[in-house]
Amino acid sequence: MTDIASSGFVRQDLLSERPAPVKTTGFIGLVRTRLLNSPTNILLTIVSASLLWFTIVPSVKFLMVDAVWTGKDRAACLTENAGFAVGACWPYIQAKLPQLIYGFYPEAERWRVNLTLGLAAALLLPLLIPRLPAKGLNAGLFFFAFPAVAFFLLYGGGITGFGLSWTASLLQLFDDSLMEAGQILIGLSKTSAIAPLLWVVGHVIVLVGTAIHWLIFPLTWLRDQLRETGQSLWTDFAITAVVVSLIAFGLTGGLRAGWRTLASSIATFAAIAVVIKLMGLDHGGLPVVQTRLWGGLLVTLVVSVTGIVTSLPIGIALALGRRSTIPLIRIFSIAFIEFWRGVPLITVLFFATYMLPLFLPGNFTVDGLMRALIGIALFTGAYQAENVRGGLAAIPRGQGEAAAALGLSWWKTTSLIVLPQALRHVIPNLVNSFISLFKDTSLVSIVALFDLLGSLRASFADPKWSTPSTLFTGFAFAGIIYFIFCFGMSRYSLFVEKRLNAHRRN
Length: 506
Description:
Blueprint: H1 2-6, H2 26-35, H3 39-65, H4 79-82, H5 90-102, H6 110-128, H7 135-154, H8 163-188, H9 195-215, H10 217-229, H11 232-251, H12 259-279, E1 295-296, H13 297-322, H14 327-341, H15 345-355, H16 368-393, H17 397-405, H18 410-425, H19 427-440, E2 450-451, H20 452-459, H21 470-500
Parallel strand pairs: 1-2
Helix pairs in contact: 5-20, 6-7, 8-9, 10-11, 11-12, 13-14, 13-16, 13-19, 14-16, 15-16, 16-18, 16-19, 17-18, 19-21
């Protein structure tokens, strides 16, 4: 103990002060550790700061400092009248804002566009907020009910039939097309070198068409009888509701477990009947506004949202088909994907607009905007298929094997285990495709559809607002709108990615 006590040491003087530790957090820490920590980073920082100075500062000066905010015509945006070098001419945007949003949509009917956009926002926002309840009901309203309501709001018109009439008309259209094809082949057999083969094939097709005609005759006869009564819509609606509800009741368990499905089906048809009465669809509906009068941001949103919503299911189906073990499905999926990915979008739009009507029956027409929407949906769906396939390839085989060991079917394994994980892996790729599609909507202007940029270019022809800064102001305004939408999608995808990958956080 004595040796230990004698070897102890007690300092009598204070230690000298040490320098403060280097700050590694906050703005100063960012500058010290990321921007000025090496000669290369110092040079890159100086170059980047110079680029920002020579781009952002002039942009802010043009858009805000030297901008003209009020005026009635081009005189307010001329340098000699303003007394300084005029930047952005915002009165021009204020005057042309209705055209940039609605295109040539009739002014008296623009409340329909506003109501449609309001309904879309009211249904979409609850889907984007994770904590809000009733996601299933909300998704059903947004993806199934809203498109039909939006169509009759934006386009107008009414309905004269329902499920029974629509089914009979589609089957009759198919039968008429088949009979027409058979008659064409019989006509070609009179002058062709392979006349016997064409004659046989033509008569076989006509025979099949005749058989289909007599098979669907009770359905078409009932449709014609309903139209003659003058109350075809509500009678057709009642028949459709009864048939669909009974089928759903039987498929989900019948008397044992199908009562809930039956109640849901009846409630759905009741809601549809209320919408029909409120919108007056049984009496002609709202006035028809042809799609050639649509334009501006309306067309941009319609094309982009329709393409985004429809391309993802198409892509998922094609990705699963490409991995299928059934050769016919796999070959069809591969051929479809490779064909559409190998064709430029401009070619797709031209084909859908000008060549697709040549392949349709003479008495069947498709609206120009609808043709463009179909082409964009198929084109984007092929790209989404490859994104989804990449996510499916990232899922270990053990996931499916474990599900099979638990007795799950292929459908349940895919929908509940494999596909959710695959989509979570490819969220950045999917959103990147959505952003590209939103910007590519400007290509529809080449097929006589005026989107935001098309309406903007059309507004430049107005001599009332012809100034040196009008062109730059218009494109700056369009660029801001595109940036807001694309940046919003990008930030929300990051939020979803972090939320779904919480198990991977350090």
